[in-house]
Amino acid sequence: MEQAYLNFHDSLNDFLAPSLQNQVIACNVNRRASIKDVIESYNVPHTEIDLIIVDGASVDFDYIVEASNDIHVYPYHSAMDHAPRGLLHHLSPPLPPHPRFIIDVNLGRLARYMRLLGFDCLYCNDFDDHSIAEISNKTQRIVLSRDRKLLQRKMITYGYYVRTEIPKIQVSEILNRFKLHALINPLTRCTKCNERLAKIEKHTIEHRLKPLTRQYYDKFLICTGCNQIYWQGSHHKRVTRLIQKFSGND
Ligand SMILES: [Zn+2]
């Protein structure tokens, strides 16, 4: 049987069975298989991959694997970020300057935290995989998911497999992966529905406030989507601490 030799680099090893991590994997070349299919047969979603180098040349996902190919697969933010740019074929188009997200159904707390930081995050707990892939495809939203099968859908160009299960650490992961720190704009977006917040005069909403809130607070924001009212109430300190933590300022 003829074989090709696969090397997954850096964080792509997260997807491999422990016995295959950080070593050369010999795979059989027994049909006309694209390199995308070969890579995904190891459950590495294409959305994680930035570069594929075969026998020293940069190739795209349609490359047909041949016997004895020496294949190196790199994620984003790998050592290859520092290689000469002109010769390399990066596999995803550059991200838009203000990335927007669509978040998988089981990551609701991540969605709320990201909205708290001002990021546009579509989230609905009854989205199915097909809807998520389709919306991402049509709107260029980045899919955030812990379901690698979802990220393997061909339709999805931009995606990220969220490694940890702990929501606050998930936020740091996303900020680092997409280099978002400079774009943090806290308390500008509704954590419930994702629409923008706007300033509102107290007297126009006074009838909706509880007596103590009316007595002690003067500055209010309202969601332009669902009309939820926000003010610097008792949870404000906690929210401020959270924002500092996410921004790396604590
Ligand atoms: Zn809202």
Q: What's the arrangement of secondary structure elements?
A:
Elements: E1 3-8, E2 25-28, H1 35-40, E3 49-54, E4 57-59, E5 70-75, E6 101-103, H2 108-116, E7 121-123, H3 129-139, E8 142-145, H4 148-151, E9 159-161, H5 167-177, E10 197-200, H6 202-205, H7 211-216, E11 220-223, E12 229-231, H8 236-247
Parallel strand pairs: 1-5, 6-7, 6-8, 8-9
Antiparallel strand pairs: 1-2, 3-4, 3-5, 10-11, 11-12
Helix pairs in contact: 2-5
Would you mind describing this structure in some detail?
With 250 residues, this protein is an alpha/beta fold. It has three domains: 3-82, Ubiquitin-like (UB roll), CATH 3.10.20; 101-183; 197-247, no CATH class. The chain is 25% helix and 20% strand. The protein has eight helices and twelve strands. The protein has helices spanning 35-40, 108-116, 129-139, 148-151, 167-177, 202-205, 211-216, 236-247, and strands spanning 3-8, 25-28, 49-54, 57-59, 70-75, 101-103, 121-123, 142-145, 159-161, 197-200, 220-223, 229-231. Strands 2-1-5-3-4 form a five-stranded mixed β-sheet, with no helix packed on it. The radius of gyration is 22 Å and the shape is elongated. The protein starts with a strand and ends with a helix. The model has no long low-confidence stretch (mean pLDDT 91).
